[in-house]
Amino acid sequence: MIIAIDGPAAAGKGTLSRRLAAHYGFHHLDTGLTYRAVARALIEAGQPLDDERTAEGFAEAVDLAGLDRSVLSAHAIGEAASRIAVMPAVRQALVRAQRRFAETPPGAVLDGRDIGTVVCPQAPVKLYVTASAEVRARRRFDEMTATGQTADFLEVLADIRKRDQRDMERADSPLRPAPDAHLIDTSEMSIEAAFLAAKTFVDAAL
Ligand code: C5P
């Protein structure tokens, strides 16, 4: 069983994916972390972020078992990740690893930007989780201030919009719902309500 979950930044797909994986006893891969791991490795090695061959080598070396959200969550890493994510050679290397992960029995939940459209177009359940840019910026802002970071709401909103634009307008694997994806708009929905909506779609496919 494969559950493919796509959507823009801060739409709630991470939380939803983890809940679904726990509920069904499936493995979970946040594919954003794979792009973030490549970006971080390049930055740490002092390598440029705009050289596709170099980035491809780093992408081939990414270890999915060693992805640690706590060292990859920095804002600058997310920004760098969305820059290297426009490179086809980087995407191909990471998609290969993601597809292998998706085949792990008894099932897997993968979340990202292109899971239903490119990585696992054969997935029996595809969800597109979204919310307005304002609601997503508010969530990000609240998350940051709750962990003691200083943040400016308008800056966070501008950032979310810039990231959306880069992810939706890139030529290779742009963010968009698969034609057969179920849409879940979490703008005015609790996590619990989103989980129940998703569960209905998964149960129908089991
Ligand atoms: O979801 P997260 O913010 O961690 O993703 C970081 C960046 O990685 C995204 O902005 C996007 O550019 C890229 N990404 C992608 N395809 C995926 C997952 C993430 O291009 N499947």
Automatic annotation (TrEMBL):
- Name the Pfam families for this protein: Cytidylate_kin
Gene3D superfamilies on file: P-loop containing nucleotide triphosphate hydrolases (3.40.50.300)
**Predominant cellular place of this UniProt entry's protein:** cytoplasm
- Give the Enzyme Commission number: 2.7.4.25
**Where is each Cytidylate kinase domain found?**
3-192
Q: GO molecular function of the protein, one example?
A: kinase activity
Q: InterPro entries recorded for this chain?
A: Cytidylate_kin, Cytidylate_kinase_dom, P-loop_NTPase
Q: Which residues of this UniProt protein bind ATP?
A: G7, P8, A9, A10, A11, G12, K13, G14, T15
So what does this thing catalyse? CMP + ATP = CDP + ADP; dCMP + ATP = dCDP + ADP
Enzyme class at the top of the EC tree: transferase
Localization, per the record, is: Cytoplasm
Assigned keywords, A-Z: ATP-binding, Cytoplasm, Kinase, Nucleotide-binding, Transferase
Q: Which family does it belong to?
A: Belongs to the cytidylate kinase family. Type 1 subfamily.
This protein is called: Cytidylate kinase
Q: Which organism is it from?
A: Xaviernesmea rhizosphaerae
Could you read off the lineage of the organism from its UniProt record? Answer: Bacteria, Pseudomonadati, Pseudomonadota, Alphaproteobacteria, Hyphomicrobiales
